[in-house]
Amino acid sequence: MSGSATAQLIDGKAIAAALRAQLADAVAKLKAEHGVVPGLAVVLVGDDPASQVYVRNKHAQTVEAGMASFEHRLPASTSREALLAMVDQLNKDPLVHGILVQLPLPAHLDATEVLNAIDPDKDVDGFHPVNAGRLATGQALFVPCTPVGCELLLRSVIADPSGLHAVVIGRSNIVGKPMAQLLLAANCTVTIVHSRTRDLAGLVRQADIVVAALGRAEFVKGDWIKPGAIVIDVGINRIEQADGKTRLVGDVDFASASQVAGAITPVPGGVGPMTIACLLRNTLIAARYRLGLDGQV
């Protein structure tokens, strides 16, 4: 973990492309041996522009991997009852192995209620309380896609992080908490810090591994980073420049942190590409699980 003048860049695009190629081979094998095509159903309610782009990308990558893609686009005015009926229909559909309800939902719909209505064995986002419990007790079936992607990026740098001190910045159910569980399972010593933490910077300075997932642009400064540490930046923030254009930045101040860290993910091109690849991975796991096969892919 020795320091270097410029950090190794962790190429999320390349690692995600390799994972998708591996998944395509596994999908072809499953189809040939068992006659099953993994199916992913995506439900999009409303016309949020970012969600539309994301759903379009998911569809393209699902088909490219040889999986079946089922898209359900519903108007923003969709009632609670209609959305829950759609989820129930997908729970019962034998061609659908994974269900994803795209967030955010329109304000009149309760995301927790909708996500909890998904069959836990089809919950490829890993958000259902049953899957959170499985992860917490070492029986994980589906782990949320972004934390899995982060772990794969981390292991591309260090195959066995056992014994290292990892600091996770952020405590969301989607990233922070499951990330901490994965790092614990990898035998790291884990500290979670958040908005109420005292001496947050001081704790980050002790970390061999930093995972930043708090949603604040360039919040983590270079002088917070221990020389040689591995930095995984989950943040995607748009900041406006002097010329009126916007650029994407992470939760870490890349310019300063990359001078201290041993390895670091860029934004964009780091964690982002891994999320959809890991969603496809979970969909394949779901199809294998239904056939009584192990979850290894």
Overview of the structural elements:
With 297 residues, the protein is an alpha/beta fold. 39% of the residues lie in helices and 16% in strands. The protein is built from ten helices and eleven strands. The protein has helices spanning 12-34, 49-64, 80-92, 111-116, 129-136, 145-157, 176-185, 200-204, 254-257, 272-290; strands at residues 8-9, 39-45, 68-74, 98-101, 165-169, 189-193, 209-212, 230-233, 237-240, 246-249, 263-264. A six-stranded parallel β-sheet has the order 1-11-8-7-5-6. Strands 3-2-4 form a three-stranded parallel β-sheet, sandwiched between helices. It has a two-stranded antiparallel ribbon with strand order 9-10. Strand 9 and strand 10 form a beta hairpin. The longest helix has 23 residues, at 12-34. The chain is globular.
Strand percentage: 15-25%
The gyration radius over C-alpha positions equals 19 Å
Number of helices: 10
Mean pLDDT reading: 95
Spell out the helices and strands N to C. EHEHEHEHHHEHEHEEEEHEH
Q: In terms of per-residue confidence, which ranges show pLDDT below 50 for 5 or more consecutive residues?
A: none
Shape: globular
Q: Order of strands in the sheet with the most strands?
A: 1-11-8-7-5-6
Alpha-beta classification? alpha/beta
